[in-house]
Amino acid sequence: MSSDSVRRVTGCQTAGANARLGLFALLQARGVPAAEADDRVAALEAGVVAGAQSEVVEVDGVAPASRGAAFADGWDEGVMAMGEALVGIVDRGVAWRPVCRGR
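^ thats the sequence. predicted structure below, dont judge the formating
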């Protein structure tokens, strides 16, 4: 990754952590139990990652034709690998939380 990409990701991570803390403070002020607040924030975060996964899999099969068949095969394999990696992140983040498993 370029240094600009790293800087942007780092900034988003910081903003996300601050937003998470702010949400917890707001939910606590409204009397939401900590465990419920954690479940709700985790569900929100999982939804964001799931949305990113949906965007990634949309580029399956759209490699530039000018790059050739081998490039296209690698492109599609990369898309699948990234899509599965994002699903894994969602699974790890919410594995014990029933709110994201439809319960």
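Helices lie at 3-29, 34-57, 69-94.
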